[in-house]
Amino acid sequence: MLRQTLYGSLILAALGLQAGDTVKIALTGPFSGGSAPMGTSARDGSKLAIGEINAAGGIQVGAKKMKIEIIERDDEAKNERGALIAQELAAMSDLTGVIGTVNTGVCMAGDKHLQEKGITKIICPAAGSASMTQWANKPDKPGVKDNSIFRFAAHDGIQAAMVVEEAINRKFTKVAVVFDSTNYGVSGRDDMLDQIKKQGNKLEVVAQEKFNIGDKDMTAQLLRAKSAGAQAILIWGIGPELAAVSNGMAKINLKVPLIGGWTLSMSNYIDNAGKNGNGTLMPQTFIEEPITPKAKAFIDGYHKAFKVGRIPSPVAAAQGYDAVYIMAAAVKQAGSTDTKKVKEALEDLKEPVPGVIATWNRPYTKWDPADVTTHEAFRREQTVMGMVKDGRVVFGNDADRERLRKSALSATPAKAKAKKK
Amino acid sequence: MNASIIGQMAVSGALMGLVYALIAYGFQLTYATSKSINFGQGELVMVSAFFSLTLTNLGFSYWFMVPGGLLFGALLGLVVERAGVRLALEQKSEGWILLTIIIGLFFFSAAENIWGRDDRPFPTPISADPIHFLGVDVTRLELAVAVGVLGIMGLIELFKRRTLLGKAFEAVSADRDAAELMGISATRTVMLSYGLSGAVAALAGILVSPITTVGPTMASAIILKAFSVAVVAGLDSGFGVVLIGMFLGALESLSSYYLGSGWREAPGLILLILALAVRPTGVFGKAIIRKV
Amino acid sequence: MKRILLLRGAELLVFAFLATIPLLVVNPYALGLLTLLAIYGILLIGLDVTVGYLGQVNLAHVAFLGLGAYAAGLAVTKFGLGMGPALLAAMAVGLVLGGLLALPALRLEGPQFALATLSFAALCTTALNELEALTGGAQGLSLSRPPILGHVLTPPLFYWLCMALLALVWMLMRNLLASQWGRAFEALRDSPIATDAMGVGTYQHKVAAFALGSALGGLAGGLYAFNFQYLQPQSFTYDLMIILLLGVVLGGRKSLWGAFVGASVIVLLPNLLSNRLLFQVFSGLGFAGALAAGLRGLVKKTTRPFQALAPGIAMGLLVVGGFFVENTEDWRKAIFAIMLFSVVVGLPEGLMGFLSTFLAKLFRVPHAPLPEPSDIETILPPRAADGSPLLVLEDLKRHFGGVKAVDGLSMIIKSGTIHGLIGPNGSGKSTVVNVISGLYTPTSGRILLRGVPLSSGSLYRVSKSGVARTFQNLQLFGELTTLENVMVALRGVYRSPLPLVLLGLARLEERKAQADALCLLERIGLRDQALIKAKDLTYGAQRFLEVARALARKPDLLILDEPAAGLAHPDVVQLIEIIKRVHKRGISILLIEHHMDVVSELCDIVTVLDGGKVIAEGSPDEVKRHPKVVEAYLGQPTQAENPQPETPRGAEPLPA
């Protein structure tokens, strides 16, 4: 017991000692375990941005320049760890903001502690719809009035809409919906089914198949899809299992396109599916092609800083990078490291923030419990269809590449906020 | 239902089941000599696979990499025996259960940090293209797994029956005390069994990696099933594991087809609990007469 | 009483301190950690029942945590129950499902048991994940804390609730484990066969222990649900199970304090590792400690070299590694593994086990004084020995495959006699004992005790009907003291119902049991060794203890299975004396023995077996001269006038 209180007081002391003239930003996410490629890519993307900002002297906060100090926490994709970390962060009096989280469950278990204390968090890079809708109005319960949780990821709703749209555009009528048994997969399934309904029921779902994390043999699911006559497979899951699906399709000679969430661009999908992955389509917010100078600088910077030849999850890395710049812009505008003031600034960013994905023009607005998109940065415009080709993700159609290049080069960024879904 | 689909499911499940059987065989080897098994065997499979991948990446040919991997696996097996099992056996306690779990945890974390957390493909000269055989699609890779599994099990059985060292192995398995009285070192035989078991685990890793990819968590699902196969067949059942392994693999595959993939493992698990309740020593195990 | 007071005082102090924390510290994070500590404390106390007391590696505990959590969650969200009923529901689910799983699983041991529980845990995760309509599946289940008596539970209030429950569980479990129940749990770990043979139903106690542990798991689950207010099936998987298991071992098995320390380590470890300085301080201290203890062990030669050196080497690795590794957070699992390895190898009793031995040495707290022994007249009142048939075997057969170990045996044991059963090795003596005592079911034939058929194939039921036995291969409860070995077997003392035991109101009965057991120990000359663990007794003393333990059953018929095997001569003399004293109380004895002098001195009548059949019966002198007996022992016909052959294997020379 003595020992245990000793720990406790030492920890508290250690936390208390960290005062200073810095902007404290916590980076969280799964840095070990199955979702680690996403978590570490996002973290490293963020670190790259923070490194750049600090190298330039820091953020202009009021009269002085302050460097960013990183607090790093691994949630192991476990809800309990996430909840504890959130409690820990919520107890820090001088924390400016939190960036991170991959797993929806971790958001569900942890974010309420941050929200209660009004600590600003930008969810990045992923997390299913529920991570934001938990704050919004529900049939039986009104949402929160004020919300300090923001999201910086192409939310599953947008992605599902694009996936369904793509299948319809390709004139398919029968599809199989395949998803993993986690929160992410199941909510992806719900989003896709919802979108199929919304887009006029033009697709008939001939099979709904589930797989578990760690499954390597997808023969059963795919055989059922095949025998039901699916013309395309709409899929929601993460890397290794997705690769097992592609390889399984090759094995039973099921030659239909695989269309699914952005995770199909993860290196562990692309590598493990090999040639069987060619032609796979997925929405992307960032494609590791140096089409703009900024993108080139980012990609080269990442490769150099973390000694890799290819980013494990380019989307996560780019989002982690841009999220830091948006947070920094909010700190600068607020002129304070106080998390509540930063939140208010985030809801009303006056200046556009140039990022590697896009130039962000008023990404967020004042929270409205009836409309979660007020705290969602991504719109349909920032998202393009990517395609796997010989081990890399390229633009699924060339028009997107041109559009992005132009919008990046033109001085006036696209009016992202003008069109709301 | 469609007979060819049933056939397809059963065959691909059964072939996967052979991998379970191979790892289960590794459990049997150590159980025979020491009545202990390595609860961290899955990590041995995984670390050996990573090591073999590294050998390949360093430019060694497949046929050099395989023995290299096996040797490394055997070495790890010896480490487990020395650090986790021997003391407990000397003290006649069941401490080995926890110690082997702990050593497995260490290997897991080390692999995560040395080789990364990502799943990686495992190159192999054997083609993954399907061949059509009696109305069923089978890849050469899967056939290679079958050949490898049965091959090494056959070799080890031959070794046990034909060589002096192997006979010592059999003697210790049959009656440890009597064998010691005959001048056979039980400790060394236990070491031998852990070494062999490690090599078997490494082979399982090398065989299964091209199908499952290599990653820190690659073996966590397989190992539970291998454990089930070993226990359901009986920890002293010899080739019984092959039958049970293939049966469990096929059952899993069929139940995932008919019950929905979420329930894939349920029938196997229920069957397992029931099988154990009815025959605690396993389907092919020898019944034990309690003596006092 | 000093010892008890010290212990209670320490408990009181700790809980009082924990209760005041919310008043002193306002940091919600620290409070969150401590709340979790209370929840894990309850969880680990439950796990310790199976892992520590039953000695089985139970991998299903995490499933009961999950089931309890979901039961509480659903009770609140679907049925609108309050927090109290929801927690009760969580416990009930643990209790019932735990009992159900225990029924088949507890016939298994070791790896088989581990696997069966593991399978159950996997099944539960699957079910929670797949029953989407009920549990919300992978999407998870969100809930909120229902108010208690109109009060919404703020974090400090919820913390107090968890701590209060931990204290309650602590108290109840302490009482239970100090009673006959706790002794029975430990006994059946050391020897299930002897536990049954002493009339303590192994199976019932195993199932009860497992169900109890699972119920605590369920309760912890309910609190878990109200703590996190969000549940997902994949929270309750093998990973967490391993951590829990290691927590119990690290803290120390069979110890409430151990469970508490284990829970603290589980909860605080991640925080310890995220601060580099703290990590280095602790790994350095650990290294120094392990090294010092190891060297001391080496010099004093109390530990094996491996045991002495390995923890130091492992902790050294940790210290050195600490300098090279960039991010200790990344290596968390490896660090945890190394620390555990050191503890498991170096301190097999866990941190608390080590600490309590250390503290006991430091303070030299004497054991509470034992009561005066009861009067033998009240424990074993003399019974009438009228020579009527007590046990009758009729054409008894027991075959193992083709081996006819017992083949048509008929014999009568008369009340009040000492009946010898002899025969060369392999003649079927042990099988006869095992069949009578219920270990084996007879292939055919009847066994009658006072004219009533004796239940066959159940050690437990046979023991209940008044037949007690000892074991040729000692089956003592090694981890229990000499006194406790006898107390476990005592018949007709433990009458208090479970609720009284839980509340600690069965103390009188406990004193009585101690007094009775001491009386029996006195008869065999072990009264002054009452507090020594049975495994630490001398071989002879262990043999005598077997007899005393069987006497505690207050049997009508006492079966002594080769009680003199391996005894030195003075011990044999003492044994004969003991048996004579027992016989004087009117207890009939069936004596299986090789030592012919023992048989000659004690037995009224001797039955000789060979090849599973009776070859002779009569007084010791008669059978000694019986030609068939001589032939059986020597393997060749000998003249009856010259019965002085060489010593047969395993038997004393036949006296002339």
TrEMBL record, chain A:
InterPro entries: BCAA_transport (IPR051010), Leu-bd (IPR028081), Leu_Ile_Val-bd (IPR000709), Peripla_BP_I (IPR028082). The keyword Transport applies. SUPFAM superfamilies: Periplasmic binding protein-like I (SSF53822). Keywords: Amino-acid transport, Signal, Transport. Residues 1-19 form the signal peptide. The keyword Metal-binding does not apply. Pfam families: Peripla_BP_6. One of its GO terms (biological process) is amino acid transport. Residues 22-360 form the Leucine-binding protein domain. PANTHER family: LEUCINE-SPECIFIC-BINDING PROTEIN, PERIPLASMIC BINDING PROTEIN OF ABC TRANSPORTER FOR NATURAL AMINO ACIDS. Belongs to the leucine-binding protein family. This is ABC transporter substrate-binding protein. It comes from Candidatus Geothrix skivensis.
TrEMBL record, chain B:
One of its GO terms (biological process) is amino acid transport. It comes from the Bacteria. The chain crosses the membrane at residues 6-32, 96-115, 143-159, 191-211. The keyword Transmembrane applies. Pfam families: BPD_transp_2 (PF02653). Its main location: membrane. Keywords: Amino-acid transport, Cell membrane, Membrane, Transmembrane, Transmembrane helix, Transport. CDD domains: TM_PBP1_LivH_like. One of its GO terms (cellular component) is plasma membrane. It is a multi-pass membrane protein. InterPro entries: ABC_transp_permease, BCAA_transport_permease. One of its GO terms (molecular function) is transmembrane transporter activity. It is found in: Cell membrane. Belongs to the binding-protein-dependent transport system permease family. LivHM subfamily. This is Branched-chain amino acid ABC transporter permease.
From TrEMBL, chain C:
One of its GO terms (molecular function) is branched-chain amino acid transmembrane transporter activity. Residues 391-636 form the ABC transporter domain. Gene3D superfamilies: P-loop containing nucleotide triphosphate hydrolases (3.40.50.300). The keyword Transmembrane helix applies. It comes from the Bacteria. Keywords: ATP-binding, Cell membrane, Membrane, Nucleotide-binding, Transmembrane, Transmembrane helix, Transport. It is found in: Cell membrane. PROSITE patterns: ABC_TRANSPORTER_2. InterPro entries: AAA+_ATPase (IPR003593), ABC_AA/LPS_Transport (IPR051120), ABC_transp_permease (IPR001851), ABC_transporter-like_ATP-bd (IPR003439), BCA_ABC_TP_C (IPR032823), LivM-like (IPR043428), P-loop_NTPase (IPR027417). One of its GO terms (cellular component) is plasma membrane. It holds the Pfam family BPD_transp_2. It is a multi-pass membrane protein. The chain crosses the membrane at residues 12-31, 37-55, 62-81, 87-106, 157-173, 207-226, 232-249, 256-273, 279-299, 306-325, 337-360. Its main location: membrane. Residues 634-656 are annotated as: Disordered. The keyword ATP-binding applies. This is Branched-chain amino acid ABC transporter ATP-binding protein/permease. It comes from Candidatus Geothrix skivensis.
